[in-house]
Structure to design on (266 residues):
C-alpha cells in the first residue's frame, strides 16, 4: 500500500475554492463571549497562523473549528460544505478529514507510540491489523521517527513527542491539520526541525494548515497568512501576509506582535 499516492489523489481531487470559510462566528463559554462575529477563510494548501495575546481566544476558535465547542452563532464551511448544519454522519466524515495536534500532544501515556497512532485508524477505518501496522510504520518514517513503535511517550524527548503526535494527526491522510502551539516548549533547533517538517508535509501532501503559534521565526518561515486576534475587540484586528503586515502596518499592536523589540522603533 502506498499512502503517499493515496494522499496525492485525495488532494488532487479536492474541490477548488476555499478549504475553510468561517462566517460571523461567535464563541462563548456560557454567558462569557470570547469571540464575536469572526470571519475569515483559508485557501486550499494555505498555511494560516492564528496569533494574539494570551487568553484572546485562539484555542477557543480552534475548538469551535474542530467541533469540540459549539459556537453560539455563525457558520463554518469546509470545502463548501456546512460543518455546523451537517448531519452527524456528515460531521463524522468531515472530522475524519482533519488532523489535530493539541498543545499538550495528548498522546496516551499508557499506550505505546504504535498504539497511539493506530487509534484513529482503528476508530475510523476497516484496515486489518497488518495494514494498520504498515501505516503506523510509514507515518513514523514520514515524521523522521522510524522504529519507535514499541516505546512509550515518556521514553521520547519533547521534540520526538511532537513528531509522534504529528504522525498520529497524519494517520488518516487529512486534508486539513490544526495545530495548537506545535513548537512550544522546544529548544530553537528542535523547533526549527518541527517547522521544516510541517512545511514538508504541506508541500508533499498539499495539506491545508491552521496553526496557533507565538513563534515569530515559525510565522515568518511558514505562514502564507496570519490573523491576529484581540481579546478586547473579541475578534480579528489584522489579516494578511506577515511580512507585509510587519512592514506596512502603523498599528502598534500589530507591530508589537510581528516585530522583535529592536526593530519596533525603526
Ligand atoms: N472551558 C472554559 N470555560 C470558561 N472559560 C474558558 C474556558 N476555556 C477558556 N476560557 C476562557 O476563554 C478565554 C480564551 O481562552 P483561550 O484558551 O481560547 O485563549 P488562548 O488565546 O488560546 O490563550 P493562550 O495563548 O494562553 O493559550 C480566556 O479568558 C479563558 O479564561
Ligand atoms: Mg491556547
Amino acid at each position: 500500500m502506498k499512502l503517499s499516492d493515496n494522499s496525492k489523489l485525495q488532494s488532487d481531487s479536492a474541490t477548488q475554492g476555499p478549504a475553510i470559510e468561517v462566517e460571523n462566528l461567535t464563541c462563548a463559554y456560557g454567558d462569557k463571549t470570547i469571540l464575536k462575529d469572526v470571519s475569515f477563510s483559508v485557501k486550499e494548501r494555505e498555511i494560516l497562523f492564528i496569533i494574539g495575546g494570551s487568553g484572546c481566544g485562539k484555542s477557543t476558535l480552534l475548538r469551535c473549528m474542530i467541533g469540540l465547542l459549539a459556537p453560539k452563532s455563525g457558520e463554518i464551511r469546509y470545502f463548501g460544505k456546512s460543518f455546523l448544519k451537517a448531519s452527524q454522519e456528515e460531521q463524522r466524515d468531515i472530522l475524519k478529514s482533519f488532523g489535530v495536534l493539541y498543545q499538550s500532544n495528548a498522546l496516551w501515556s499508557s499506550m505505546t507510540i504504535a498504539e497511539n497512532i493506530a487509534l484513529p485508524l482503528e476508530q475510523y477505518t476497516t484496515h486489518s491489523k497488518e495494514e494498520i501496522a504498515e501505516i503506523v510504520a510509514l507515518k513514523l518514517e514520514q515524521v523522521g521517527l522510524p522504529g519507535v513503535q514499541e516505546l512509550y511517550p515518556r521514553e521520547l524527548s519533547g521534540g520526538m513527542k511532537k513528531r509522534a503526535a504529528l504522525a498520529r494527526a497524519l494517520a488518516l491522510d487529512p486534508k486539513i491539520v490544526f495545530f495548537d502551539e506545535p513548537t512550544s516548549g522546544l529548544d530553537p533547533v528542535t523547533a526549527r526541525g518541527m517547522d521544516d517538517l510541517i512545511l514538508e508535509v504541506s508541500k508533499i501532501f498539499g495539506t491545508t494548515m491552521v496553526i496557533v503559534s507565538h513563534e515569530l521565526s515559525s510565522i515568518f518561515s511558514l505562514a502564507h497568512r496570519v490573523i491576529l486576534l484581540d481579546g478586547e475587540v473579541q475578534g480579528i484586528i489584522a489579516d494578511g501576509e506577515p511580512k507585509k503586515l510587519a512592514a506596512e502596518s502603523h498599528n502598534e499592536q500589530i507591530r508589537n506582535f510581528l516585530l522583535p523589540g529592536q526593530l519596533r522603533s525603526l
Observations:
- Strands lie at 18-29, 32-43, 47-52, 73-78, 81-82, 98-101, 176-180, 208-212, 225-230, 235-240.
- The first strand starts at residue 18 and ends at 29.
- Residues 1-15 have pLDDT under 50 and may be disordered.
- Residues 35 and 234 are 4 Å apart (CA to CA).
